[in-house]
Amino acid sequence: MDMDETPQEITTLVGREVYSNNGVFVGEVEDVRLDLDQEVVTGIALSQLNDELFRDRIERGKGVMIPYRWVRAVGDVILINDVIERLEQSEESDEIAA
């Protein structure tokens, strides 16, 4: 991977809206988590969260980190696997960090 391309590609993710694959707004990308050794994105940090989805799970004003493997498509918006199912599964495994 050409290091000159990496920062530009990563910064284009910031500010994009994130939707579940069934069209529900989840949040907006605030930052990305990187694995510098492998030069890959491992997670996306979301803010401006959909209050209906996160009201009882995340304190108001906090963000969430979504594993990048949940991402299905990146375009004008980012599509992820259905977040409601994932949230319910992750309550046991603690996948999402506040």
Structural class: alpha+beta
Return the string of H and E elements.
HEEEHEEEH
Low-confidence stretches: 1-7
Please report the total strand number as a whole number. 6
Short structural description:
22% of the residues lie in helices and 35% in strands. By secondary structure, it is of the alpha+beta class.
How would you characterize this protein structure?
This protein is α+β, with helices and mostly antiparallel strands and 98 residues long. The chain has a single domain, classed as SH3 type barrels, CATH 2.30.30.240. It has three helices and six strands; from the N terminus they run αβββαβββα. The chain has a six-stranded mixed β-sheet with strand order 4-3-2-1-6-5, with no helix packed on it. A hairpin with a 4-residue loop joins β1 (17-20) and β2 (25-35). It is globular. The model is unreliable at 1-7 (pLDDT under 50).
Sequence-ordered SSE layout with sheet pairings:
Blueprint lengths: L4 H7 L5 E4 L4 E11 L4 E8 L3 H4 L9 E4 L3 E4 L3 E3 L2 H11 L5
Parallel strand pairs: 1-6
Antiparallel strand pairs: 1-2, 2-3, 3-4, 5-6
